[in-house]
Structure formats: structure tokens, C-alpha cells
Design a protein that fits this description.
- By secondary structure, the protein is an alpha/beta fold.
- The protein has 17 helices and 23 strands.
- The strands form four sheets. Strands 12, 13, 14, 15, 16, 17, 18, 21, 22 and 23 form a ten-stranded mixed sheet that branches. Strands 1, 2, 3, 4, 5, 6, 7, 8 and 9 form a nine-stranded mixed sheet that branches.
- Strand 1, helix 1 and strand 2 form a beta-alpha-beta unit.
- Helix 7 packs parallel to helix 8 and helix 14 packs parallel to helix 15.
């Protein structure tokens, strides 16, 4: 049933006429028929020919409207002029040289019907000069921290006209990044922003388009930085700021929340292998620029005489280290909970002893995010010794259980078919090999679940933080070598599988919200899945609501009877 009127608003300026015809005909080819196409023309040199072309379509199809802008005031003002005259309840934006794919409005109408969201975005691809569809980007569901890294929501972009009016529309001072600024301001009013996991929009690659050349619009990069900086100040206060990165159109949100230098407790279990632990502690001491920290070293029944000899020297060599005897059977969750009892810090960093620090400001970066009210657990980029990725965030359901996306790939800034590993983004979980969480968060959500023995409780803690309304964060701005072997094959007790099965269920069944059902979950390196989801599967995704505390607590209760 077609009960929603869409206004597809397209600002025109000296538009290529071949492209414009293709765009108009792409809208006319929509499977969903209840739309109007508002062609908002601010051209000067080509005004006559463009108006003639548009009128050729308006005469044949009353849904096509030609709106002449009296004075060219820039893209924000021109688009706003068109939106003010649009009759639709929902606005879909389109650039004058791009293409809406045939299912675009149909999928948006389905998303409106299946959810109560007011803002929508879809997956996208590029259209090259030969007319071939290339470089798809399969996006995650709404990820605030990814938006703080780049304008990932981009196209197709659709919103309710009432929310546009509520934020006051486009701002001309943000020309070049006007869509980014608008999305950031929408995010100040709502988190109910819906992703449609389907390619509905094609960017056309041309010399002046950022689709083909990221350096094509340097002014747009600067406008984006200002839009993000303004938003961060409004949302988080003066201590937040946007900074540039080495990549165009990629930003980094900084939170200078550690002004009073809160204490950090690094909790590190070990059993023998004292040389490895020494190397890890030495790298922390030598590399770290943050100074208010302690290391709680948990000796879990070390047996070798050399280890005990090293323990005797340890405190003389490093007075930040407190050695705690953990004289019980190995249980990773219990060890970390035990370590917290001896820790005096405001922020905990749980860390394996086979690490080697690369980034000097690693502690600041983890902790400035961990203390944010909207963040639960923070994890870094971990690298194998050969420089390939060991951890860049965990996808729950990958490989049937959970795995590290980009594992064993070369580190590079990619834009297809999934988000680059070189930007901050929200994730369902990060690895317990190195994770930061504030004491305040632990007091709110509880510690590690000791029913897990070896693995799984790191992911479970992250899922719990997410269910309690917080987002977890992966950051590539902290780099650490993780010296575990790629071929490491450790025993996993049956109880860990049983616990994981229950706790991971929402994501194993519905997919991880921070991945995409169009991607192959059997592989850690992102690639398109051979088995494409059908419309019913996509509809289920559109109905999906965020996992909440009540639902998740009930799931955890179900595993109370697990027999250890």
C-alpha cells in the first residue's frame, strides 16, 4: 500500500544534461509510484537548456516539478528552497549527477512502515564512466562514533520533513558538508536512525565528484571538520573537539576528559612466561605518556623458580606494579574480577601479558573514551608481529560464534565493501586481550560473568554494556602488538560454548548490528556474500529494535542452570 508521499529533492547547478535525463528516468523507474521529483534549478549559464529539458518531463509526468531558484545562494539555501516547496511527508535527497536505484523508494517506504524512525540511510555503490556499478559500501546500523569519523550514512538519505523543520534545515555556512551537518544535528534529537541494508543509490564518478577523487572538494573537508566540531561542543561540552587525520573526509573526535588525571588500573593475569610479562610491562613503562597508572599483576599459580625470582626483583624495578597471588584454578573472568578488588583506579584496562605497546598515548585514547557516559567498553587495534591485523573489533555471529573482522589482513584504509579499519567506529564487542572500561560502568552493569572459564566473557560484558544502553568502541588510534601465534589453538570448555550460545543468540539469529547482512559472515576479511538476503530478511532487519536490558537479563537468567 503506497500511503507515503516522497519528495525527491535534487538541487541543479549547470548540470550535465545526459546525467540529468538519467536521473529523472531513474526516479520515474521507481517500483514505488507515490513520489514527486523536485528539480531545484539555480543554474545561470545553462538555465534555458536545463529548464527546457525539465519541462519536457513535467509536461508528460505531473509528478516531475521544475522549481526555479530566483537567486543562487549556494547548495544549502537552494536545497532548502526546494524542500520548503515540497509536498511530501518524507524528503529523499539526491545529487544532480547520481542515480536512485529502482527499489530505493520502495525500500524506504518499507522502512517507514516497519519502524518509527524519522531518519533513514542505505548502502551505496559507485557508477563508473562506463556505467558499471563498482565499489559497494555495506554499512553498519546506526553508529554514532563512525559518524564522528566520516559521513558514512551519506546516500540514500531520507528524513521526515518535521524533523528537518525541527532542526532548522540546512545551514549555508556548512556548504560542501551540508548533509553531514544536517545528520549530526538530527543525531542530537534522536538515536532512532534506521539503516536499510541494501544498495539503493549510486554515486557517479567524475573529476569533480568526491566519489572518484577524495581531494576534489577541499572546502568540503574543512566544512565537515567545522560541522563535527560544532556538534561535539553542543553534545559533550568544551572538552570535546574534532581534529583532522591523514585522510581526507576522515576526522577524529577527541575528548579531553582526563584533565584531573584519573588513575588507571591495568589488570594483567599471568602464569609463568615471566620474560613475556616483563617485555609487556617494560613497554608500558617506556612508551606510555600517561603517568597516573598502576599495574595489578595477578600470579595465577606460577610454578617456575625463575618466575618467582623475577617477582622478588619486580617491585624494586617498578613501584607501579602490585603483585597479587591468585591461588585458584584458571578462570579468566574470575581473575579479572579478583584483580578489580585490588585496583584503586577510576578506569580499568584488562590486558594480556603478551602485548607490546606501539602508540605512546594509548592510555589517554582508551581512557578518554571509556569515561564517556555513552560508551561502555573500548578496544584498540591489535597487530600481529608481522604488522597484519589481529583485532579491529569483534563481529558477533561471525564464523558461527564471534570473530575479529579484518583478522590476518594487511592494514590499509579501505572504503569497500565495509568500513575501513583505520577509523573509530562502534562495535558490538572488543577483545578481552586489551579492553578499557570505567569503574562507573562496571558498577552499573556488573563485572565479568564467572560462569565463563576461558573465553566468551569479554564479548558477553560488551553485549551487556550495549543492552544497558551504552555503545562499545573500536579505535585504531591505539596500536599494540599482540604476540599470540596466528595458529594458536586453545582448548575451550563446553560450558563456554553453552554460555556463549545463549548470550550471543540475538546477534547469531539477527546478525550483528555493526556489520551488514550483505557481507559473508564465514570470512573475517569483509567480502560480499554469495547468498543475497531476500526482501523478507531485509524486512526483519528493518523491524529490529535495539537489545534492551530487560530482554538481555532474561537471556542471561536462562543460563543459570548451565552445569559446569
Amino acid at each position: 500500500e503506497e500511503n507515503v508521499l516522497f519528495s525527491v529533492v535534487v538541487p541543479l547547478y549547470e548540470t550535465n544534461e545526459v546525467y540529468l535525463r538519467e536521473l529523472i528516468e531513474a526516479v520515474q523507474a521507481q517500483e514505488y509510484k507515490k513520489w514527486e521529483l523536485c528539480l531545484v534549478d539555480a543554474s545561470r549559464k545553462k538555465r534555458e537548456s536545463i529548464s527546457a529539458l525539465c519541462n519536457e518531463y513535467t509536461q508528460k509526468d505531473s509528478r516531475v516539478r521544475y522549481i526555479s531558484v530566483p537567486e543562487n545562494k549556494g547548495i544549502s539555501a537552494n536545497t532548502d528552497y526546494g524542500i520548503r516547496q515540497a509536498k511530501g511527508e518524507y524528503i529523499a535527497l539526491c545529487d544532480h549527477d547520481d542515480i536512485l536505484l529502482p527499489k530505493a523508494l520502495y525500500m524506504m517506504a518499507a522502512a517507514i512502515q516497519e519502524s518509527d524512525a524519522e531518519v533513514f540511510y542505505s548502502d551505496e555503490d559507485h557508477l563508473n564512466k562506463r556505467g558499471k556499478h563498482i565499489f559497494p559500501l555495506y554499512k553498519p546500523d546506526w553508529s554514532r562514533d563512525l559518524l564522528y569519523s566520516q559521513m558514512y550514512t551519506c546516500h540514500a538519505f531520507c528524513f521526515k520533513k518535521t524533523i528537518y523543520d525541527q532542526v532548522g534545515g540546512f545551514r549555508s555556512e556548512m556548504d560542501g558538508a551540508q548533509d553531514y551537518d544536517l545528520m549530526l544535528r538530527f543525531s542530537e534529537l534522536t538515536d532512532n536512525i534506521r539503516h536499510i541494508p541494501y544498495v539503493l543509490y549510486s554515486w557517479r564518478e567524475s573529476e569533480t565528484s568526491t566519489a572518484a577523487n577524495a581531494d576534489a572538494k577541499p572546502y568540503a573537508h574543512v566544512a565537515g571538520l567545522k560541522a563535527l566540531n560544532d556538534h561535539l561542543k553542543r553534545r559533550y561540552g568544551e572538552y570535546a573537539e574534532a581534529v583532522e587525520t591523514e585522510y581526507p573526509f576522515v576526522y577524529r573526535a577527541r575528548f579531553h576528559t582526563l584533565g584531573d588525571k584519573p588513575k588507571v588500573s591495568i589488570i594483567m593475569p599471568m602464569k609463568d612466561h615471566w620474560e613475556m610479562t616483563k617485555q609487556c610491562i617494560d613497554s608500558i613503562s617506556e612508551k606510555s605518556t600517561y603517568e597516573n597508572y598502576e599495574i595489578i599483576l595477578l600470579d595465577n599459580r606460577s610454578e617456575e623458580p625463575e618466575t618467582h625470582q623475577w617477582f622478588e626483583k619486580l617491585h624494586k624495578e617498578n613501584d607501579r606494579v602490585t603483585l597479587v597471588k591468585a591461588d585458584f584454578e584458571f578462570n579468566w573472568s574470575k581473575l579479572n574480577n579478583y584483580g578489580m578488588k585490588y585496583a584503586s583506579g577510576d578506569i580499568f584496562i584488562f590486558m594480556n601479558n603478551d602485548m607490546k605497546i606501539i602508540s605512546p598515548d594509548w592510555m589517554e585514547t582508551l581512557c578518554e573514551n571509556a569515561v564517556r557516559d555513552d560508551i561502555g567498553v573500548v578496544g584498540p587495534l591489535l597487530l600481529y608481529e608481522d604488522g597484519t591485523v589481529q583485532h579491529a573489533g569483534i563481529i558477533v555471529g561471525m564464523g558461527g560464534w564471534a570473530d575479529h573482522v579484518y583478522k590476518e589482513t594487511k592494514l590499509s584504509h579501505t572504503g569497500t565493501p565495509y568500513v575501513s579499519p583505520m577509523v573509530n567506529r562502534n562495535v558490538t564487542a572488543v577483545t578481552g586481550a586489551c579492553m578499557a572500561v570505567s569503574r562507573k560502568t562496571i558498577e552499573e552493569i556488573g563485572g565479568f560473568d564467572e560462569r565463563f572459564i576461558i573465553c566468551g566473557s569479554d564479548v558477553e560484558l560488551c553485549i551487556r554494556a550495549y543492552a544497558y544502553g551504552k555503545n562499545n568502541l573500536y579505535t585504531p588510534y591505539v596500536r599494540i602488538y599482540h604476540l599470540e601465534s596466528k595458529s594458536r589453538d586453545s582448548y575451550i570448555p563446553e560450558v563456554d560454548f553453552k554460555m556463549s550460545y545463549n548470550c550471543y543468540t540475538p546477534f547469531r539469529e539477527m546478525g550483528d548490528p555493526f556489520y551488514n547482512i550483505q557481507l559473508d559472515k564465514k570470512r573475517t576479511a569483509p567480502r560480499e556474500s554469495h547468498s543475497k538476503p531476500d526482501f523478507e530478511e531485509i524486512k526483519v532487519q528493518l523491524q529490529r529494535k535495539r537489545l534492551d536490558k530487560v530482554t538481555y537479563d532474561a537471556l542471561r537468567q536462562q543460563v543459570d542452570s548451565v552445569d559446569e
